[in-house]
Specification:
Blueprint: E1 2-6, H1 9-16, E2 35-39, E3 46-51, H2 60-65, E4 70-78, E5 81-82, H3 86-95, E6 99-105, H4 112-123, E7 134-136, H5 145-163, E8 168-172, H6 173-179, E9 190-193, E10 211-218, E11 228-233, H7 237-244, E12 276-279, E13 286-289, E14 296-298, E15 306-310, E16 320-327, E17 331-339, E18 349-355, E19 358-364, E20 371-380, E21 383-391, E22 403-406, E23 409-413
Parallel strand pairs: 3-4, 4-6, 6-7, 7-8, 8-9, 9-10
Antiparallel strand pairs: 1-2, 3-11, 4-5, 10-11, 12-23, 13-16, 14-15, 15-22, 16-21, 17-20, 17-23, 18-19, 18-21
């Protein structure tokens, strides 16, 4: 059940006293009347904790016996403040059957790349069975809202790109409203900090939450050095297992699985036939990443549809397009990209091609061809885990209004096996002519999301998508 009321300033301030984020957070100030949005759990919830070195030497066997089903474990608080207990807690949680996830307390006034590198280095390769990374956003660094939001997106972009899993954002309602100006990050699950026995208030524009931190003063068996942050996951234990990676063959495609590793759970969105095929941006194999407000769709191009955005000179991509490829047969294919005018204006469009032999980046001038631009000839392996990606940070100036287009990709097989020269038509009069299978593609289902209505929107099995910053549109 969801209720919405308009709170007075006094009421809003009163609410803010119970929304302090982590245990050592200050009270968030509210400068004006805010809209109160109370959102209750969809159905049942699952109990978990988040811990750091401040909880001391944890007896994880006792924690598991206390009914804790999941735990988020701190990696670092600052560049020069790395949690010395992370490795112990990380291993012990798993050994005692507790689903684990890692988080980093974000400092927007410190180097974002350095913070992300610390997180990824400590985390190691993302493993099926682990929960998505979490970014703890509760410090402003005395920076303006636009700068904080830009740097939050940069961290999410780096970590999602490295792990292939969409992170979770932890924050408090008033912090997000006051210090990030209610920036729209709704493509990411929300972990809301609101200390209440009731349903939490969440910041706009989110309309639901994934995890609710409802107290920082709980006492849990096995943790004696300090009180503990406790949380409810918005779903059943089965939903949480699905989010964490599940079991191959469970019918749920989740963060630790791919089409190649578990095709039963993650069927290919489209199978490229032996002769070749066209993979359009309007199909399930394409994903446009970043703020969707900056991905403009037009009713032209291949299939009467294309997407464009503006090129940037930023260090990290804000938006991008990615075509997932899954091949019925291995072979050498001619690869082309549709670059219709006037939407293909970038002279430095760098297509990142993951293929059977590795990875190759091909830079083309999209404005040179109003049609199919040749990217080259590549050997692709049978199956998936191959793709083409085009980022918007081409190096062309933000204020140049240079458009970059995402339309169809065309693959044409160049090394088809020759027909048996000794076999002539009509040799076997009793044999009916085989139907012409041509170049038709076999379209499968889109990658499924986990079995919970909240995360159906999040497509956590897919690639993570990036964001837009620092320019006018």
């Amino acid at each position: 059940m969801r209720t919405t009321t308009i709170a007075t300033l006094a009421t809003a301030l009163g609410l803010s006293l119970g929304l302090s984020g982590c245990a050592d957070s200050g009270v968030y100030q509210v400068g004006q009347t805010q809209q109160s949005v109370e959102v209750c759990a969809l159905s049942e919830t699952t109990f978990g904790i988040d811990v750091s070195r401040f909880q001391g030497n944890i007896n994880w066997s006792q924690v598991a016996g206390a009914g804790v089903k999941f735990a988020y474990i701190q990696i670092s608080r600052k560049i020069n403040d790395i949690d010395a207990k992370f490795e112990f807690n990380w291993e012990q949680a798993k050994q005692n059957g507790i689903l684990r996830g890692a988080y980093q307390r974000f400092q927007p006034d410190q180097d974002v790349q350095a913070q992300a590198n610390i997180f990824l280095s400590k985390l190691g390769p993302f493993q099926a069975g682990d929960l998505p990374p979490m970014l703890d956003v509760e410090d402003s660094g005395n920076l303006p809202a636009s700068t904080i939001a830009e740097r939050v997106r940069q961290w999410l972009n780096i970590v999602e790109g490295a792990t292939g899993v969409r992170p979770i954002i932890y924050t408090g309602r008033y912090f997000w409203q006051d210090f990030l100006n209610s920036a729209d990050f709704t493509e990411y699950p929300l972990w809301i900090a609101h200390y209440t026995t009731g349903c939490p208030n969440i910041p706009a524009p989110w309309t639901n939450w994934a995890i609710h931190q409802y107290s920082s003063t709980a006492v849990i068996a096995g943790i004696t050095a300090n009180t503990v942050d406790v949380n409810h996951f918005n779903g059943s234990i089965d939903d949480l297992l699905a989010l964490a990676g599940g079991v191959c063959g469970d019918g749920v495609c989740n963060g630790g699985e791919s089409t190649s590793s578990c095709e039963a759970d993650c069927p290919p969105c489209q199978v490229i036939s032996e002769e070749g095929d066209t993979v359009d941006e309007s199909g399930a194999c394409f994903h446009g990443g970043g703020d969707p407000a900056y991905l403009r769709r037009e009713s032209v191009g291949i299939g009467d549809s294309l997407i464009w955005t503006h090129a940037t000179d930023l260090a990290q991509p804000s938006n991008y397009g990615e075509w997932q490829l899954y091949f019925a047969k291995a072979g050498t294919y001619k690869l082309e990209a549709s670059t219709p005018q006037p939407f293909g204006m970038s002279k430095q469009a760098a297509y990142q091609i993951r293929h059977g032999e590795g990875a190759t980046t091909v830079e083309i001038d999209q404005s040179a061809v109003d049609g199919w631009s040749v990217l080259g000839e590549f050997s692709f392996a049978q199956g998936g885990d191959q793709s083409i990606r085009l980022d918007d940070n081409t190096g062309e100036a933000n204020d140049s209004d240079t458009k970059i287009v995402f339309d169809a990709i065309r693959l044409t097989r160049l090394d088809l096996p020759e027909e048996d020269a000794d076999e002539q038509p009509g040799d076997d009069e009793d044999t009916e002519a085989a139907p012409d299978e041509g170049g038709c593609s076999s379209a499968g289902r889109p990658v499924s999301s986990w079995n919970g209505s909240l995360f159906t929107l999040l497509a956590l099995c897919g690639m993570g998508w990036r964001r837009r910053r620092g320019r006018q549109h």
